[in-house]
């Protein structure tokens, strides 16, 4: 077996990516503190062709060298905006027709494996701070909460791992 060379992967250019159909998902980062996590989520968002990334609160904004270390250019392909207040950003997304979903461990959360996204719905998926999770203010206005089933001793996954799992799940359920 031979690994493919980069030019054999037939990836879209940035301009082609901007024009292609997108997964009907916006990723919302609520006070994410690690620039490496932010960059990795941009790269994952590019990989699954999400509509946009919304950065909120203390979440750093491109351009920044520490974000680019892990984004590897995805900040140029994935549309993004910044909002000081996550609740204002979420209210705007709701007004634009998005269903607001927190990725969090919470009372009455729905296990990711049992959730079936609707192809006719746009989703805003909120990923929270590495220590405190999705803010209490954002949790008060969500439509639902998805939880990733876990079976080990730790209390949570890293935010980048969570984003990868959830975005893959949405992509697979909506496109494969």
UniProtKB/TrEMBL annotation:
It comes from the Bacteria. Residues 25-168 form the tRNA/rRNA methyltransferase SpoU type domain. CDD domains: SpoU-like (cd18097). One of its GO terms (biological process) is methylation. The keyword Transferase applies. Keywords: Methyltransferase, Transferase. GO terms for molecular function: methyltransferase activity. This is RNA methyltransferase.
């Amino acid at each position: 077996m031979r690994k493919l060379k980069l030019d054999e992967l037939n990836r879209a250019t940035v301009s082609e990516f901007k024009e292609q159909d997108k997964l009907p998902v916006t990723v919302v980062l609520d006070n994410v503190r690690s620039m490496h996590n932010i960059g990795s989520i941009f790269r994952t968002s590019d990989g699954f062709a999400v509509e946009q990334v919304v950065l909120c609160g203390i979440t750093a904004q491109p351009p920044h060298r520490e974000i680019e270390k892990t984004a590897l250019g995805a900040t140029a392909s994935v549309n993004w905006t910044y909002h000081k207040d996550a609740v204002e950003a979420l209210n705007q997304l709701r007004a634009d027709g998005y269903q607001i979903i927190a990725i969090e461990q919470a009372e009455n959360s729905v296990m990711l494996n049992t959730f079936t996204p609707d192809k006719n719905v746009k989703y805003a998926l909120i990923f929270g701070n590495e220590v405190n999770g999705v803010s209490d203010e954002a949790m008060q206005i969500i439509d639902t909460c998805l939880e990733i089933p876990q079976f080990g001793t730790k209390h949570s996954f890293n935010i980048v791992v969570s984003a990868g799992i959830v975005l893959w799940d949405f992509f697979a359920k909506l496109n494969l």
